[in-house]
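User: Run a structure prediction on this.
Assistant: Running it now.
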Amino acid sequence: ARLLESGGGSVQAGGSLRLSCEGSGFPLSMHCRAWFRQNPGTDREWVADIDNKGSTRYAESVKGRFTLSQDNAKNTLDLNIDNLNSEDTAIYYCAARGLPFCDGTSPKHYNYWGQGTQVTVSS
């Protein structure tokens, strides 16, 4: 089982990005999946998740700006980010859990991780 993120980059404040997570070796849609982000010296922060039924949850800090979308045929999970600000600068990680439902927001709940993709927002 493997996850691979793409789509990070540098963008000006107010701009948009789409991050993509491609799974291989297992069907993503059958698992709880999430996006986390992390800056050096800080804990990995939960951003959003989606369960096997397509139900989504978002952190308060990103609600209304971040949107999850999945493409089961491509085995991908995208994170669409609008109205970026400097506090969104971080390495973004895709994660999948060995269970179909999502409960809790701790990284400890997740079994599979991608390598991360950097998002840098400049003002």
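The radius of gyration is 13 Å.
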